Amino acid sequence: MALSMLSSLLFSSLLILLLLLKPSVAIYCDEDDCYDLLGVTQSANASEIKKAYYKLSLKHHPDKNPDPESKKLFVKIANAYEILKDEATREQYDYAIAHPEEVFYNAARYYHAYYGHKTDPRAVLVGLLLVVSALQYLNQCSRYSQAINMVKKTPAFKNKLKALELERSGGVTNKKKGHKQMDKKVEEDLSNELELQIQGAEKPSMWNLFAVQFLLLPYTLGKILYWQLCWFWRYQIKKASYTWDDACYLTRTCLKLPPEHWENINDQMKDDLVLKRLWEKNNMENYLAEMRKESKRRR
Q1: Which DSSP letter does residue 207 get?
Q2: pLDDT tens digits, 97-112
Q3: Counting beta carbons within 10 angstroms of the beta carbon of residue 24, is it exposed (0 to 12), middle (13 to 18) or buried (19 or more)?
Q4: Other CB atoms within 10 A of residue 151 CB
Q5: Which domains are seen in the chain, by residue range?
Q6: Which region is the signal sequence (predicted)?
Q7: Contact assessment for residue 11 and residue 26, using Cβ atoms and an 8 Å cutoff
Q8: Which of 88, 129, 85 has the alpha carbon at shortest distance from 112?
Q9: List of residues 6+ apart from 79 with CB closer than 8 A
Q10: What angle do CA 28, 33, 37 make, to 5 degrees?
């Protein structure tokens, strides 16, 4: 449904853009022909174009001719000359004349030629990061809000609310309400106290945005490099024993568990897994064999 709506929206936007765009040739000299404005043919060389421009400028320049209409015509003539005196823009204009149906391609070439070199690439990068980050944050907010609304409808969440209400009231319930639904304001206040961790729809955070991550990239890379050097020095050079945290990291990596999954494992199971030293090949193979046997036994 969402994909279909997005496709329809994109199609409508492209259709509107197509209607608003001027014809390929008109983006250069409006409705006029650049060659006609200078009084030359399309086969004229650079010298002929230059002579034609100077001749017309003597006639229509505001300093020579105060007529307002003549001033407007001079602006058009000057624009036509700017287009035709440059080989690159003249080639683009000639292509637009020969292929007027390629509206988007001709428009893209025109705007790139006139505005592309004037735009600082750094400004473009910053603008792009800000736009993408804004869309990313809005998407996170939307997903989190939808997930929270779904969780609030589950019996498990309602039971947590009732337990929290009893805890706040010291175990005394409101007899007038009995088993009826609790007050909306109370429910909202209690809901705000519950920290909901929903996998795949985490609470929106500025630290996860592309723009912030890009700014922190040097620090992140430096931190990773420092960690790698410390690891190499401690365990490869000095041959020290693994600390508990590092042993947990190796175990989690061998099991290919995300950090949040590892945190949800109880301490006893963590101890058992770490003591198995699964980062050693033989131990990992034996563990996998045990898991397969256990799986078959359960079937």
Answers
A1: G
A2: 888 878 777 777 777 7
A3: buried
A4: 15
A5: 19-118 (1.10.287.110), 122-172+180-207 (no CATH), 216-298 (no CATH)
A6: 1-26
A7: no
A8: 88
A9: 29, 34
A10: 105
Residue with the bigger pLDDT between 249 and 107: it is 249
20 pLDDT higher than 50 = no
The 8-class DSSP code of residue 240 comes to P
Q: How far is CA 266 from the centre of its chain?
A: 36
Higher pLDDT, 182 or 144: 144
Distance, in Å, from the CA atom of 54 to the CA atom of 71, rounded to the nearest integer, reads 15
What does pLDDT average to over the chain?
79
Q: What is the mean pLDDT of residues 2-10?
A: 46
Q: Give the pair of three-digit tokens for residue 18.
A: 């197509």
Residues belonging to the chain = 299
Greatest extent of the chain over all pairs of C-alpha atoms, in Å: 101
What is the spatial distance between Cα 127 and Cα 121, in angstroms, rounded to a whole number?
A: 10
Count other C-beta atoms under 10 Å from residue 102's C-beta.
14
Both tokens of residue 157?
Answer: 């969440």
pLDDT at 7: 46
